[in-house]
Automatic annotation (TrEMBL):
Keywords: Acyltransferase, Transferase
Name of the featured protein: [acyl-carrier-protein] S-malonyltransferase
Domain annotation Malonyl-CoA:ACP transacylase (MAT): ranges: 1-282
Lineage: Bacteria, Bacillati, Bacillota, Bacilli, Bacillales
Keyword Magnesium: no
Record-listed E.C. numbers: 2.3.1.39
SMART domains xrefs: PKS_AT (SM00827)
Cellular component, GO annotation: cytosol
Example GO BP: fatty acid biosynthetic process
Molecular function GO labels: [acyl-carrier-protein] S-malonyltransferase activity
Catalytic activity as recorded in UniProt: holo-[ACP] + malonyl-CoA = malonyl-[ACP] + CoA
Enzyme class: transferase
Length: 287
């Protein structure tokens, strides 16, 4: 993931005091996954900005909220990385094994909630977490609780129900203690109001207020990410082109499904040069 951003890897290594891991084994640890995602997404966003391509809004999904905050000018790269490093370690320490996340496709939130209620117990907790699309709902909790929920959603007619490669129950009440620790810590850093609107993970609204953004960065780990609402607010506010930072193209496809009149680009799919070319071409057509 990090082979093409060596300068940022070097910078990150000096900040956290240990060399970043980017091998297959490391991708089984939320510490290295979160750190790599933050570094990669921020680096590619900066490269686009260096070419004169500036966003009108920033929207990050979960750990992507931190690169979004950096690009909006709320936090420095250095401070954001320090918080991400702490966040990831707290999360892994809180739930070292036996927990995770899963995605359910083809059912509404109400239907998934029905399956969750049938599966949840104190010994086998499971919760609805991220609302990615009308019929793409993420659940978090114990592996036993998740598998029970998968059994129930299949009975309800889900198209797909599978575990994600996320070894922790993120975006659920199980992470409340981690969120509270992060909230205390984040206020020890220098924060600035955003220069461009930031989409809040746990409400789906937009804001420039540093206090609300700091709260979101700390607390979103214990609340569902309202990606569907975040994208809708962007579109309602005039956004017609979404550019997804690497890795992957999941968010672009979710936007395309919900907002067919918009354009989407995943840098991972077409590369930086093609991304820059298409954006300039579209701007010229509009002018």
């Amino acid at each position: 993931m990090l082979q093409d951003v060596p300068e940022y890897v070097k910078k990150a290594t000096s900040i956290i005091g240990t060399e970043l891991r980017d091998d297959e084994e490391a991708m089984g640890s939320t510490v290295w996954i979160q750190t790599a995602l933050f570094v990669k997404e921020t680096a590619i966003a900066y490269r686009l900005i260096e070419q004169g391509i500036r966003p009108q809004f920033v929207a990050g999904h979960s750990i992507g909220a931190f690169p979004a905050a950096v690009i909006a000018g709320v936090l420095s790269f250095e401070d954001a990385l320090r918080i991400v490093w702490l966040r990831a370690r707290l999360m892994e320490e809180a739930f070292p094994e036996g927990y995770g996340m899963g995605v359910i496709i083809g059912l509404t939130k109400a239907e998934v909630q029905q399956a969750v209620l049938l599966s949840h117990s104190e010994a086998t907790p499971v919760y609805i977490s991220n609302i990615n699309a009308e019929q793409q709902i993420v659940v978090s909790g114990s592996l036993v609780g998740l598998n029970n929920a998968f059994m129930h959603v299949k009975e309800l007619g889900s198209a797909k129900a599978t575990l994600l490669k996320v070894p922790i129950p993120s975006h659920s009440p199980l992470m409340s203690e981690v969120a509270n620790k992060l909230l205390l810590k984040i206020h020890t850093f220098s924060l600035r109001d955003a220069q461009i609107p930031y989409l809040v993970n746990h409400t789906g609204r937009k804001t420039k207020a540093k206090e609300k953004i700091a709260e979101d960065l700390a607390l979103n780990v214990a609340y569902p990410v309202r990606w569907m609402d975040m994208a809708a607010v962007c579109v309602e506010s005039g956004a017609d082109c979404f550019i997804e930072m690497p890795p992957g193209h999941t968010l672009s496809r979710l936007v395309k499904q919900a907002h067919k009149s918009t354009r989407q680009m995943a840098v991972d799919e077409i590369g930086l040069e093609a991304t820059q070319y298409l954006i300039r071409k579209w701007k010229e057509q509009e002018e």
